[in-house]
Amino acid sequence: MTGGPMAAAPIRGSTRVVGVIGWPVRYSLSPEIHNAAFAALGLDWVYVPLPVPPGRLRAAVEGLVAMGFAGANVTIPHKSEAAALCAELSEEAARVAAVNTLVAAEDGGLRGHDTDVAGFDRFLRGEAGHDPAGRTALLYGAGGAARACALALARAGLARLVVAVREPARADPLVRALEGLPAEVEVLPLAAAEGLALGEGALVVNATPVGTSGERLPLPRLGPGTVVVDLLYRPDPTPLVEAGRAAGAAAYGGLGMLLHQAALAFELWTGREAPLAAMRAAALRALGRDAGARGPRPPATPAGAA
Ligand code: NAP
């Protein structure tokens, strides 16, 4: 395979269809990532954008089943509502009350998964080489992605999770998602993260859209022992990644997690091992093309969206 853009595969009567449901989905990298994976393995599959406005998810999901889609990804703002529409949920999806991957079952029902949980874990412990066991993490946000990261961290043996949110009561579902796991959880108002001392080997994760347009989060003390992960991948680097690197921390954007959650969704649909290198190359091509394009930057919401 060459590093350049691939020719579109022919779509036939036999082609299996999957896609990404979100609003908006225009800036999603997932079509490029998955279509590159199908092409790399020579699969007769196609992945399409499915823009579904708020309030139309139920109709969209019923249509998906009626039209014989093999499944779909779900992104902002539909992940939580999608969980309520599934006939069956994976253990992770039920715990975090969010679904990012729908798989059509043979009986016509839909099974909901949340591959963000294992996607974050594979990125953090595999690719970034950070073991959170026995350590502290500061997590910005308590939405679907934050709940997925929190569950992955708690399962990996994190000792203490500090959650920084605009409205602490909105973190209740995150706290519930960790019930029965040994991590100690503390919820703080966002501003209280400023200057916080987290200790050696701490992890800082941004699971909010803050930074997409250059906005800055209130930062804890960062240093060479800190590991920073921003789930956003635009701009590159994000303000948080920039701040982490300036303090000597190891700092990563959200592309790694995006690829791993996509690889897991690909495997659920096709039963084949995902060609991660081809998927990464497609994402980098798309990001490079965006960076080189003139015109306004994509709006805040979808910048890290699947
Ligand atoms: P979500 O369910 O809508 O949750 C968003 C969270 O961000 C909520 O806690 C929300 O707090 C908080 N938030 C929103 N605007 C904020 C602001 N201006 N200041 C402070 N907090 C704010 O969305 P999500 O699915 O969790 O996604 C969160 C981010 O992660 C998005 O940018 C998404 O694109 C990115 N993401 C990346 C990946 C990846 O693979 N790289 C995967 C999933 C998600 P309130 O409750 O106060 O609104």
List the helices and strands and how they pair.
Elements lengths: L15 E7 L7 H12 L3 E7 L5 H10 L4 E4 L4 H7 L2 E2 L1 H6 L4 E4 L5 E4 L1 H13 L8 E5 L3 H12 L4 E6 L6 H6 L6 E6 L13 E4 L20 E4 L8 H8 L3 E3 L2 H16 L5 H17 L14
Parallel strand pairs: 1-2, 1-3, 4-6, 7-8, 7-10, 8-9, 10-11, 11-12
Antiparallel strand pairs: 3-5, 5-6
The structure holds NADP nicotinamide-adenine-dinucleotide phosphate.
The site of NADP nicotinamide-adenine-dinucleotide phosphate has 28 residues, from α6 and α9.
> Which regions contain 5 or more consecutive residues with pLDDT less than 50?
294-303
**Quick check: average pLDDT?**
93
Q: How many H/I helices?
A: 10
* SSE string, helices as H and strands as E: EHEHEHEHEEHEHEHEEEHEHH
Instruction: Please give the oligomerization state of what you see.
Output: single chain
What are the distinct ligands in this entry?
A: NADP nicotinamide-adenine-dinucleotide phosphate
Tell me what portion of residues adopts beta-strand conformation.
15-25%
Distance between the termini: 25 Å
What order do the strands of the largest sheet run in, or round the barrel if closed? Answer: 2-1-3-5-6-4
The amount of helix comes to 25-40%
Q: What best-fitting shape do the alpha-carbon axes yield?
A: globular
> Would you tell me the structural class of the helices and strands?
alpha/beta
Query: Rounded to an integer, what's the Rg over CA atoms?
Result: 19 Å
Profile the largest sheet.
6 strands, mixed
- What is the number of beta strands? 12
